[in-house]
């Protein structure tokens, strides 16, 4: 009886050990492929990172609609200067050392508020008026104000390369603009820089290969037209109709030649 019981326990243990699957790390995708008709499989472990984590890599995401300034400053302090601070701590510091009454009134932080806090932390800093050529020669990340989507907004300018401006945006993540588009958005041509002092700065805000994977607006439009030919056709006809209607203008700028309007029946 004891031998039967011992044998059952041993068999149960062996089966349990054989069926236990080791837990995979978070984000790991396991791909198994048959090599031949045998039981052997070719296994590959692929680490997959969510898009939202890629987009906000080395960026402190702003917690409130009005906290882009504090989030941008926290991003520079954490990923360039090397201080480990939360956005809440930076916000409290800005309220303490900055002009708290004006901050509450305008519901936003200024570069002067940033400078006062950074000085209290023991780092040199400064606000500057600059040109695009100055930005091209910068060897530090800079906090710059821009006009975007109808609002004033603070972002961290990482670098300019090959006619594009790469930024760490606390609202939408790592983004880039063509240089000409950035010039239109840049507010008052000013910037704010935190210098690391005697400490060796981190390289987390330097441009890396994965940051160069952007799709320009023209390519996006062409892809949309290829994927949705009906949209392409409608757009083409709408433009043609607009040009034809211009021929009725009495100013004579467009010749009143033969008209050819397009209509689509459903």
From TrEMBL:
Gene3D superfamilies: Cysteine proteinases (3.90.70.10). GO terms for cellular component: membrane. PROSITE patterns: PEPTIDASE_C39. Transmembrane segments: none annotated. GO terms for molecular function: ATP binding; peptidase activity. Residues 62-193 form the Peptidase C39 domain. One of its GO terms (biological process) is proteolysis. This is C39 family peptidase. It comes from Marinobacter salinexigens.
């Amino acid at each position: 009886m004891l031998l039967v019981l011992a044998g059952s326990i041993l068999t149960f243990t062996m089966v349990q050990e054989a069926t236990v699957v080791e837990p995979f790390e978070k984000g790991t995708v396991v791909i198994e492929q048959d090599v031949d008709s045998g039981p052997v499989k070719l296994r590959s472990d692929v680490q997959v990172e969510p898009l939202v984590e890629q987009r906000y890599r080395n960026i402190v995401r702003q917690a409130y609609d009005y906290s882009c300034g504090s989030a941008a400053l926290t991003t520079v302090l954490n990923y360039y200067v090397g201080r480990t601070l939360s956005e809440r701590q930076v916000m409290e510091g800005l309220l303490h050392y900055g002009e708290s009454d004006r901050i509450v009134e305008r519901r936003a932080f200024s570069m002067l508020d940033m400078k006062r806090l950074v000085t209290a932390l023991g780092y040199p800093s400064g606000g500057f008026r600059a040109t695009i050529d100055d930005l091209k020669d910068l060897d530090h990340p800079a906090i710059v104000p821009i006009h975007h989507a109808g609002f004033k907004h603070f972002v961290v300018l990482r670098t300019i390369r090959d006619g594009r401006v790469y930024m760490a945006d606390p609202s939408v993540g790592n983004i880039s603009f063509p240089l000409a588009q950035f010039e239109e958005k840049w507010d008052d041509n000013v910037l704010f820089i935190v210098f690391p002092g005697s400490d060796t700065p981190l390289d987390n805000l330097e441009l890396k290969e994965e940051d160069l994977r952007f799709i320009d607006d023209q390519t996006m439009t062409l892809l949309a037209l290829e994927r949705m030919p009906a949209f392409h056709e409608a757009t083409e006809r709408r433009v043609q109709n607009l040009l034809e209607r211009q021929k009725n203008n009495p100013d004579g700028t467009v010749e009143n030649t033969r008209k050819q309007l397009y209509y689509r029946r459903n």
